[in-house]
Design a protein that fits this description.
The chain is of the alpha+beta class. It is built from eight helices and 17 strands. It has two domains: 144 residues, Beta Complex (Metal Binding Protein, Guanine Nucleotide Exchange Factor, Chain A); 172 residues, Peptide Methionine Sulfoxide Reductase, Chain A (2-Layer Sandwich). The chain is 23% helix and 24% strand. It starts with 25 loop residues before the first helix and ends in a 7-residue tail after the last helix. The structure holds zinc ion. Zinc ion (ZN) binds next to loops.
Length: 334
């Protein structure tokens, strides 16, 4: 593994990936380990309570053996203990920590050792919290903490894209252009087998493409769910290869999802609409992975805005837009 943290300068036995048990002489350990770690790990020294770097540390991450790099504990299993040493109620897996009965100093204790290098870590007591009732009382110096990777961004992407076919793209484009959170709407063709199809070719119904709009949206301001609710409000998802008077596979109802989450949202919404019998007939909308999207000719872009007075715009698009504006009145851009 080509990982910087997998190596330790001066300690050739250290590895976060190799779990092979080590058999290294005391003299060799003395040579490769820092003094304080050597004393604890190889000679069972105990650091003074309330002095180690981890006794009251609460970072999220993983604790490794400082001597050999074996993964020992997760921060989830760490608890605030009064004892002044870092305390865990559970080891990360059954082989990470091993035990040895320790009768030194006139006490009977259970010594906890690293499962790989056999180095002393601390002791195990039976006064820990549930669910195990155990307390792994460790020396900070024998541990090495690695924080969980901080995600560069939150789970929500800055921008998302979805491609929808709901009949004539002039209609759908006009509607999405006025939805809050939508940043860009492009009319085009998707789902066919011909490269760079023209409008004429798509209209022949022989290229397999659907008229679609590609929508770029800000998931912080709108959502895939809202976009699809709009979709099911402004087109008829129950007429196969047809929207009103427009007939042909290029007018099919289709959702081209760009990620798994969009697919989930689409299927869940279709299921809910079906169960609630929102439509009289069966929903025939297809949910398919995105295919190559071809931008339509310039004169199709912003068609409604530029041709408002044309009969098609007045009779077909405007009623859909009005329905959308009524249902989603709080969500319209002004
Ligand atoms: Zn170790």
């Amino acid at each position: 593994m080509d990982n910087a943290s997998d190596k330790k300068p001066g300690n050739p036995y250290y590895s976060r990936t190799d779990r092979t048990k080590l058999n290294v002489s005391d003299a060799e350990w003395k040579r490769v380990l820092p003094r304080d770690l050597y004393e604890v790990s190889r000679h069972k020294a105990t650091e003074r309570s309330f002095t180690g770097k981890y006794w009251d540390f609460t970072g999220k991450g993983t604790y490794y053996c400082a001597a050999c790099g074996l993964k020992l504990f997760r921060s989830d299993a760490k608890f605030a203990s009064e004892c002044g040493w870092p305390s865990f109620f559970e080891q990360i897996d059954p082989t990470s920590v091993t035990f040895h009965e320790d009768n030194s100093y006139g006490m009977h204790r259970t010594e906890a050792l690293c499962g790989r290098c056999g180095g002393h870590l601390g002791h195990l007591f039976n006064d820990g919290p549930e669910p195990t009732g155990k307390r792994y009382c460790m020396n900070s110096v024998a541990l090495e903490f690695e924080p969980d990777a901080v995600k560069a961004t939150t789970n929500v992407a800055e921008k998302d894209t979805i491609t929808l076919g709901g009949g004539c793209f002039w209609c759908i484009e006009a509607i999405y252009k006025s939805l809050k959170g939508v940043e860009k709407v492009t009319s085009g063709y998707a789902g066919g087998h011909l490269a760079h199809p023209s409008y004429r070719e798509v209209c022949s119904g022989e290229t397999g493409h659907a008229e679609v709009v590609q929508i770029v949206y800000d998931p912080h301001q709108t959502s895939c769910e809202e976009i699809l609710k709009v979709f099911f409000t402004v087109h008829d998802p129950t007429t196969l290869n047809r929207q009103g008077a427009d007939v042909g596979t290029q007018y099919r109802s289709v959702i081209f999802f760009h990620n798994k989450q969009q697919r989930e949202v689409a299927l869940t919404l279709i299921n809910a609409l079906s169960k609630a019998k929102v439509f009289d007939n069966l929903i025939v909308t297809k949910v398919e992975p995105e295919t190559k999207f071809y931008v339509a000719e310039d004169y199709h872009q912003e068609y409604y805005r530029l041709h408002k007075s044309e009969p098609y715009c007045r009779m077909v698009i405007q009623p859909k837009l009005e329905k959308f504006e009524k249902v989603f009145k709080d969500r319209i851009k002004h």
